[in-house]
Design brief:
The protein starts with a strand and ends in a 5-residue tail after the last helix. The protein has helices spanning 43-50, 74-79, 95-106, 111-119, 135-147, 165-180, 192-198, 216-222, 247-255, 269-277; strands at 5-14, 17-27, 32-36, 58-63, 66-67, 80-83, 153-157, 184-189, 201-206, 209-214, 227-232, 237-241, 259-264. The chain has two domains: 5-220, 3-Layer(aba) Sandwich (Rossmann fold); 225-265. It is globular, with a radius of gyration of 22 Å. It has 282 residues and is of the alpha/beta class. The structure holds adenosine-5'-triphosphate. Adenosine-5'-triphosphate binds at residues 14, 17, 19, 37, 39-45. Residues 5-232 form the ABC transporter domain. This is ABC transporter ATP-binding protein. InterPro entries: AAA+_ATPase (IPR003593), ABC_transporter-like_ATP-bd (IPR003439), ABC_transporter-like_CS (IPR017871), ABC_transporter_ATP-binding (IPR050763), P-loop_NTPase (IPR027417). Keywords: ATP-binding, Nucleotide-binding, Transport.
Length: 282
């Protein structure tokens, strides 16, 4: 398989409102791909089209070498996992019984339940009724559900947005491990640090259009001024351009013992997003 996801000229119109306007991108097998955008930019709509929950108005979509017309088949559904705002649990059943139902649905062995509960840090909650769980705990059960059948590709719509920092970090490590084991991950997030840490490549979605696409490192380099920020022991910050004629200046500063640290001037993904779209991603 050359591409896990291939999207060409995708467009989605709701009545008079164009939610997605001619977007194209590929996701490679084994990649963690992040779709980043402010509220209403079209992230959830994109996930819903890629998982067969919504039809597109125009364009071509292929996921795991399957065309949109076959997204409803049991075979396709068994190959993907989904965590979206439509994912739900049986509120009156326990965590364990919820996951047991999904194991049966996907023909997954019951041993997967404890493996997944460990992954999402919920072993102690296995006998709790879902209606008694906090929002963040429910989110983690939903994540366990999305991964219970060991799909090749998972779609995660803001998986850590309801979590406290400790559990968000735990889930991020779990996603990295899952990816190292070969799972392709398509994730949407508002969290730029999470995107920088997790994603091989990110696309900036704004008003239904992709405005930038690349690896976090490549984007940070592209938008860098390429200057050095030199911090001295007298708490001064000097900005020195990365030019041959400045080599002696930097050498002299280091030789004089004044240099505490030298930093590159690569902006954060959040700063780049603001520059490209004019919007803060909060
Ligand atoms: N079923 C629908 N009918 C009409 N308009 C819709 C529908 N679903 C989404 N939209 C509109 O499409 C645009 C994109 O919505 P979408 O939910 O994809 O954004 P998002 O980037 O996921 O936002 P958020 O981060 O708030 O979840 C919004 O303007 C939204 O109001």
């Amino acid at each position: 398989m050359e591409q896990a996801i291939k999207v060409t000229g995708l467009r989605k119109v709701f009545g008079k409102h164009t939610a997605i306007e001619d977007i194209s991108f590929d996701v490679k097998p084994g990649e963690i791909f992040g779709l980043l955008g402010p509220s209403g930019s079209g992230k959830t709509t994109t996930i819903k089209i890629l998982t067969g929950e919504l039809g597109q108005s125009a364009g071509e979509v292929s996921v795991l070498d399957t065309n949109a017309g076959s997204f409803g088949t049991a075979d396709f559904k068994s190959r993907i996992g989904i965590l979206s705002d439509n994912s739900s649990l049986y509120e009156r059943l326990t965590v364990y019984d919820n996951l047991k139902l999904f194991c049966k649905l996907y023909d997954a062995p019951l041993e997967r339940i404890d493996v997944m509960l460990d992954e999402v840090n919920l072993k102690e909650a296995r006998s709790k009724v879902v209606s008694k769980l906090s929002k963040g705990m429910k989110q983690r059960v939903l994540l366990a559900k999305a991964l219970i059948h060991q799909p090749e590709l998972v779609f995660l719509d803001e998986p850590t947005s309801a979590l406290d920092p400790g559990n968000a970090a735990h889930i991020q490590r779990g996603l990295q491990k899952l990816n190292e084991a070969g799972t392709t991950i398509f994730i949407t997030t508002h969290d730029m640090e999470e995107a920088t840490e997790l994603c091989d490549r990110v696309a900036f979605l704004n008003n239904g259009k992709i405005q930038e696409l690349g690896s976090p490192d490549a984007l940070r380099y592209k938008y860098s001024t390429h200057a050095f920020h030199v911090e001295t022991f007298s708490s001064e910050w000097l900005v020195i351009e990365n030019k041959a004629e400045n080599a002696d200046k930097i050498r002299d500063l280091i030789a004089s013992g004044q240099v505490k640290a030298i930093h590159s001037d690569n902006p954060t993904l959040g700063q780049i997003f603001l520059k490209v779209t004019g919007k803060e991603l909060v």
